Amino acid sequence: MSVISDVRPTAGAVDGAQPVVVSRHGGATSNKATAIRVHANAMPACQEGVLRALLAPDFRNHDALPGCAGGPDALTQAMHWFDDAFSDQRVEVLHAVAEGDLVALHVVFSARHTGHFRGIAPSGKRFSVREMHMVRFVEGREAEHWALRDEAWLERELSAR
Questions:
Q1: In the chain, what are the domain boundaries?
Q2: pLDDT of residue 26
Q3: Which of 41, 98, 130, 133 is the right S-S partner for 28, CB 3.0 to 4.6 Å?
């Protein structure tokens, strides 16, 4: 399947500035909607079929759980791991920015701690933690994923009595 792209200069670009490549497969706006569907809808709802349909066959999760290879299974394992540890999961998208084949998401993940998490027994505590996700797309599907969250803070919060 070939994907037709056009190249447009960025707004206010000057000579030597990098152009933005916009895929006619769906483009930045479609990629942003897909990233939100994956990380704010499918992941917290533990919808493995939806998640797998939105990942490229050679998907690479750069922040996979220890012991995971980083392919599509790594993201589904993380989804199930969070589903086992936390109930009432919600993801609020604070910012979603797309340019070319990249999407950045700034979100708040909130849930109730009802299962074991990194050796911490269920506390029943409700919590919220901010996360950043960077996703690269190929032909409308997630091809690469990077994430940051303050897991040290989360572990302290959940284990505090």
A1: 21-159
A2: 66
A3: 98
Q: What is the pTM of this model?
A: 0.79
* DSSP letter string, 31-68: HHHHHHIIIIIIHHHT-HHHHHHTEEEEEEETTPPTT-
| Helix extents (H) in the chain | 27-36, 43-45, 48-53, 72-85, 151-159
**Residue at token pair 């709802």:** 45
Q: How far apart are CA 3 and CA 116, in angstroms?
A: 44
Domain 21-159 has CATH 3.10.450.50: yes
Instruction: Give, in order, the Cα–Cα distances in Å from 78 to each of 14, 24, 39.
Output: 42, 31, 12
Give long-range contacts, CB 8 A cutoff, 24+ apart: 4-8: none
161 pLDDT tier (thresholds 50, 70, 90): low
Cβ proximity of 96 and 103 under 8 Å: yes
Q: Are 151 and 131 in contact (CB under 8 A)?
A: no
